[in-house]
Every structure is written in C-alpha cells, then in structure tokens.
Fold:
Amino acid sequence: MTRRVLLLGLVLAVGFVGSRASAAPRPDTVRVVFVRQGRLVHVERVVRPGLAPEVEALRDLVKGPTRAERATGLRSALREGVHLQSVRAEGDVWLARFSRSLLAPATTSTMERRFAQIGATLAPLGPERYAAIGTEGRLVTTVRLGTWPSAWRPQIGEHGYPFVVRGVQLRLWTLGYLDRSSVTGTLDYVTEEALLAFQGWEGLSRIGTMTGETQVALFRASRPESFTHRPGRRVEIHRDRGVLLLVQDNQVVRAVHTSTGIFGRTPAGTFHVYRKELISWSVPFHVWMPYAAYFVGGIAMHQYSDVPAYPASHGCVRLPTGEANRVYAFVDVGTPVFVF
Structure:
C-alpha cells in the first residue's frame, strides 16, 4: 500500500513538471489597478474557477470599478467597451492583446495611465518583467513592469494603428535584435538595422522601417532559435534571411543584419574562424575591412559601409557599423561558423 501511494505521488509530480501553473501556487485573488485622483490604487478580485490569474486580472481591469468602488472615487483610464482578446507569457514578456478601443482618443496623460494600469495589474502575476501591449494583434508599445510608461508620442502606422518608437525598440531588445542602451525613442540607423534583421528572420519584406506586417510580427514573435545544438560559442549565418546569429550554449544572444555573397559566393558549410584582424586590407578589391574575422579562404565577417537587404558582396559577410565590433569581440580563433 505504501509503495502504491509513493508511486502515485511520483506520477502526479512528474505530470506537473514544467507546467507554468505548477511553478507557483495558483493565487485565489489578483490585484487590479484603478485610479483615484491621478494615483494608481490596487483592488482585490477573486479568481474564478477555470480562469488563469492573468486573464481574470485583465478582464476585471477592462470592466472597470464596481459601483461601490466608484462611490469611493475609483476610476479607470480605460474607456468602457475595451475587450481583452488574449494574454500569455513569452519568455520574460507578457503579450497582452486588446480591442482597438483601447486606443480611443484621449489626452497624453490619460493614455499613459491606461498603459500604467495594464502594467501594474500584470506586475504581481509572475516573473515577467515586461509587457508588450497590442491592439487587434499589432504591437502598440512595450512597457517595463514596475515603472511608469514612457511618454505617449505615437507614430501612425498602416491603417491608422499607432505605435510608440521606444516601445518598438524595447520589444526588439527583448527579442535580441537591439541593445538596451539603444532604446532611445528615435528611429535611427541602429534601429533600422535591427528592424532589417527582424524582418529578415521573420520572412518579411526587408525595408528597415515599421510596416503593418512588422507591427503584427513584433507582437507575436519569439526570440530567434539556433539551427545547431552544441555547447559553447558559435556563429550561424543564414544567407537567405540576411541574418547572422551569435549563439552561446544554444541560446541566441544577438541577431544581426548582414549581406552575404551575390550568386551564392558565400559557401554553405561548417567552418572555423582562423584569423582575426582589426583592420584588414583586401588585396583583390583594394578596400579596408575593419573587424575582419576570416573563416574560409579569403572570406571574412567584417564591417562595411553598405549592408543592403540582399546578397551583394563578393563572398564576405558584411556587417553594419556597431555590430561588426560586437561579432569580432564574440568570436575567437577556432570559433565554429555555420553557413546555411
């Protein structure tokens, strides 16, 4: 009898390993955030059977305060009629999707309070540190949980769907395409290169600007995954996608826009870095190549002033300014290079 009980306990334990719900006790209540005199106020709600806590919390948020709560001065920056469409966690980011009425006309401060309410409601629900907020499946902004959202200064995308540049940059950072220090709120060269890498990896039109399909893809995307599986550092070059991946122990630490050889002149295969030169001189083409890491014959990964969204080199792997030095520092002589 004792053995059967122990076996049953083992089966139950194994059955729940890896389950997000079992990572922590399921809360009986959640805290929903409303506003009183411009300040955020938490109220408690009971989690109904069969609902995930994050779903309960955001559904109660969009419903707004009860009549009794309104009598105490509680209000919501979210207008009546906003609907939660979905919410799930991806890595350390909540992906919260709402109806377009979330973006109903409002003052700048009211819009910021809307995102603050969403972020503060999600913050206690798990280890996630960010929330990507979308409407009808398109990314609007990304907020860091536990902090006040950045200023509401939207750009207008396709079909009138707005997006916040800083929120787009923060999303690119969480996906591995941008540095945290590059989250500046300005659509600059570095952001353009990150968008080119993202669009290439996702199979989108590579133009380096925010398109409607890019806005949709940014909301649903996951961090790139390597094609190879082995310990240690390595580089993967995906010629058709125009993307170079820096991989550490099967985790992609950076995705970089690149341009490889025209007409397939960058050969596919498995190679190793055999020489590094801070500034290398190309004898046949009479050009300097900063941050050159050679991996087969005279073909190197190196910085170049023109890195278009298509194969354009004589065989080398062109890298943008700011990324070439990152790749150069990442690799050592002997680092594997896989070209697909």
User: Anything to note?
Assistant: The radius of gyration is 24 Å. The chain has a mean pLDDT of 91.
